[in-house]
Amino acid sequence: MQKWQTFNQVETVWSGWMLRAKQAAGNAFVKNRLVQTLVAKKWSILLLFMAFLLGRAMILDQLAPFAVAFFAVMYFLRRELLYWSGAFLAAGSLFSMDPTHTGYLVVEMLVFILIQKGVERFERSDISYAPVIVFASTFLVQLFSHLADAQLSWYTFMMTGVESMLSLILTHIFLQAIPVFTLSRKNYVLKNEEVICLIILLASVMTGTVGWLIGPVTLEHVLSRYLILLFALVGGAPLGASVGVITGLILSLANSSAIYQMSLLAFAGMLAGLLKEGNKMAVSIGMLLGTSILSVYLGNQSEVLNSTWESVAAVLLFLLTPRGVIQTLAKYVPGTQENLKSQHDYAKRVRDVTAGRVEQFSEVFRQLSRSFKQITAEAQPMRREEEVGHFMNSVAEKSCASCWKRQQCWDEKFYQTYKYMTDMMTEVELRENMTKKDLLPEWKKACVKPDQVLGVMKQQYDLYKNDQHWKKQIIDSRQLVAEQLSGVSQVMEDLAKEIKREGQEMFMQEEQIRSALEELGLSIHSIDVISLDEGNVEIEIIHQYTKGFDECRKIIAPLLSEILGEHIAVKNEQALERKEGYSTVLFGSAKEYEVETGVAGAAKGGDLLSGDSFSTTELGNGKFAVALSDGMGNGERARAESSTALTILQQLLQSGMDEKLAIKSVNSILMLRSSDEIYATVDVALIDLYSAQTTFMKIGSTPSFIKRGNEVFPVTANNLPVGIVHDIDVDLVSIPLQHGDTLIMITDGIYDAPGHAVNKEIWIKRMISEIDAETPQDFADVLLERVVRYHHGEIFDDMTVVVARVEKFQPEWATFRWPGLQRIERPKTVS
Description:
- By secondary structure, the protein is of the alpha+beta class.
- The protein has helices at 2-56, 66-77, 82-94, 101-121, 130-148, 154-177, 192-207, 219-254, 261-274, 279-298, 301-320, 323-332, 337-400, 406-412, 414-430, 441-446, 450-500, 507-519, 551-564, 635-654, 659-672, 748-751, 760-770, 776-790; strands at 213-214, 217-218, 524-533, 536-544, 568-575, 582-589, 593-602, 612-618, 623-631, 680-688, 693-699, 704-708, 711-715, 732-736, 742-746, 799-808.
- It is elongated, with a radius of gyration of 43 Å.
- The two termini are 55 Å apart.
- This is Stage II sporulation protein E.
- GO terms for molecular function: protein serine/threonine phosphatase activity.
């Protein structure tokens, strides 16, 4: 009873918690929907207000190309506001300088809808057709009106074509600008052309305020100067001047008496943008100064006073503008801090999502690996008992089913009979050629058909052995899959950590590098510091180069080495196609050590194809791999096995897999790819190019040797070759190398050359110590030649020697000091 009460209490608490969770989720959903609805209504009201002003806007006192273009764009972008937009456009045209234009506008919108519906009937509807349909609608309506009034002339025909062409161009412009207000853009990235289109749209909207006066203040002049102040603060002098030119041009077309406004606004925008570093007040002073200078020069006293009041009104609006509005505008303008931050935030979100997905996949692979290992481990003891029981049942059914003593043996003396059968199975397992003479006397007494039982048992044992072989293959395959999944999981986990690394904005470091390079007289176009992590520096510089001087290696790299405190080298250099005389250069950390290699080899009996394979390659993670493999036997088959082992091992190591797991994977693959006894030795040295710490992986290979001055040190391990046993033990030997050390790796063809009567290790050490070659290639050639001469030119086995010499990296050009040069402060890595 107490248990049921406890269960009911838990159920009550759980139900209450679930109810509260549902209510909270519902409230959050309603709140989000309400916020979205309010934001959508705010933008809808703004778009309708723009429609009213664009319906009123005219240029050259008789052309109104804005309305139909806006109506067409709203048809594709905000279909739900289409009829409201048409109504506000028509209402705005009623308050224009030519109210009779309202009828033409309504007919043009109707013709546009009819043509668009006709195009949709043929399934050809696309937003790219909107400018052409607008052109056709405007041209047909205006031409028909002139024909109906019998006023068609070359002048009216030309003006009709001009208005239609302007409508087409404005449709293109509005298609790029209006999406900013319709919230269809999720990322704040606008091209420079799209920013210009946005300015043209805003200037076109301001054209609808022409003729509106508040005392001596003209409203379109206030709004145009307010627009200049906004863009000058956000984008500086170039954008401020551009806004001044565009708005002045459009306003002068709408009001021919204000033609001087173009030069006035452009000059004011340039001055305001030059003072953007001083924030709002400095920008306002720059605009006031620019408008005042040109107003005094171009106008009379009353015009100067009116212009001053207009500028003051624009400044007041500008000072009252919330900071959030300016930051939102700055997000759209390329090159601003807000734009860069929004892109950085977006990239960070994408990076975090990607890292989370990679981590999920890593966990999936890890769970799969555990499940495969668990199935294999749990099935081993149970399978052995089941297989023995199945074996005994098969023998009993085939030999005892028709025997007259079956009931006596298996019912009355079950345990004794089972023991006899088990002992006989053990003997058959130990002696496959067992005959009737080898049967024990007590077995012959207990069984009336010992010959038949023995024959059946031997037959079943052959089947049992075959089953065991394939079951072992299945277990090995599962083990291989488990290890591979575990390795892939680890690699993906490391990848997720790399993705999560926070990118950093290093403007101070970039400016410090730029100033140091420009003091040397170099023309630097741009600098992008990708990473300043010690040992992993990446700096991309675009500079104007001079052919034949090679400033990158002779000046820039040594200077970077000095201010960063580590050796910097040129990683890649590529000329820019779009900019003649410019080159993109990637500078990166130079390794502390470099490895020079040499290889020499000979096939058995002087043949062309040797069973040995070698590899010397940089893995890309700061490590250099020197590998040697000897396949079983000689010739093409041995070559295939050794090269396969090295190729798979190299690819696994380059992917970032652990060394031991990589060796075990290669071993499993070699075991599973063929049923024959095929194996290969593997001898790998992984040299860290930053510390010269070297890890040796020797799987069934002969000893390697390190020559340091006049001393020779052997490196040995006692592991079986890969491909012989499944669960191979991998012993890693780690030895720190020094500058000038020579590493010699050989196959058994060279190591076994002196024969059994001589201590091989001492013989090889003495021969290595006697060689004094300048380069690793000469060293390898001399060692192979001496071994061949030792046997008087006979080659009894495949011979290969790989020599690697570790030396300190010496830059081609030394670092140099420059007056006032300071070390760069490296930022802390944020993970």
